[in-house]
Write a structure and sequence with these properties.
alpha/beta, 40% helix, globular, seven-stranded parallel β-sheet, binds nicotinamide-adenine-dinucleotide, 267 residues
Length: 267
Amino acid sequence: MIDLGLNGKRAIVSGAGYIPERAGHGRFSSLNLAAAGATVACIDIDEGRAKAIVEEIQAAGGNAFPVIADMESYAEAERAIAEAVHGLGGVDVCVDIIGEATWDRAEDFSPAVWDTTIQRNLSQVFYFFQLAGRHLIAQGTGGSIVALASVDGFVAAAQHAPYGAAKAGVVSLVKTFAHEFGKHGIRVNGVAPGNVGSGNEDQPEGEYAVNGVNPLAAPRAHDIANAVLFLSSALAERITGQTLVVDGGATIKAMWEMDDATLEGLR
Ligand SMILES: NC(=O)c1ccc[n+]([C@@H]2O[C@H](COP(=O)([O-])OP(=O)(O)OC[C@H]3O[C@@H](n4cnc5c(N)ncnc54)[C@H](O)[C@@H]3O)[C@@H](O)[C@H]2O)c1
């Protein structure tokens, strides 16, 4: 048996709830951490969604409790993380799921939408890293922080420029916080999903390259949650400052296609 080192650990997931028409990264990440033996403080802006994921974890035999807060507000985030740490009796694992794209042409985005998108996808992550980090530093026992970035932080984010810029910022924050927190034994990493879309859990195994984007197949929410689990676990105890891309290979496509006839001519 491989030990993930998460049994009995204390975890916070920010944005733990599930909106059915969305991917469910908070839900699957929370379920994974609870299944690995961690108690999960499930933070969400929506009380019903926070309670629903807590009930789902408990129904599966895990331990969890809800914390209600708008994590885009610094004061609310400070209060919620303190409440979570108090309820858990300390903290070992911190996961930030929150983020959402806005859509427009680059030449049409309003300054107001730019500001709200940066707030939701970048400033909010900075708040989480700083506030969760303070508790981990004060506790003095190390720990792990993971945030969801996006492939849009690595490649062009066509028609969602502020989101791509914010997610590139998350990739930068992951490196900087990892650098500064390393001396406290705190690891900071990111997970960059490809296009999961609105839940594709029923996608069958064994059907690869079904579209021109993903050489393998599009990632599912549980693929993202598995990356979150790995980076939060003892298996990743010497990994920090990294953002793990989980995109079915979408961003590694070659710059040209080569058919067999062309290849034969070159061999
Ligand atoms: N789905 C994809 O294809 C994809 C691709 C790349 C990156 N991502 C990233 O995944 C994350 C979102 O995953 P999702 O769509 O499964 O989550 P989601 O948008 O469904 O949100 C999960 C939970 O977060 C809560 N939440 C939202 N704003 C909050 C706030 N201010 N305070 C507290 N709680 C809040 C919601 O109520 C919800 O229950 C984002 O960071 C997004 O950028 C998703």
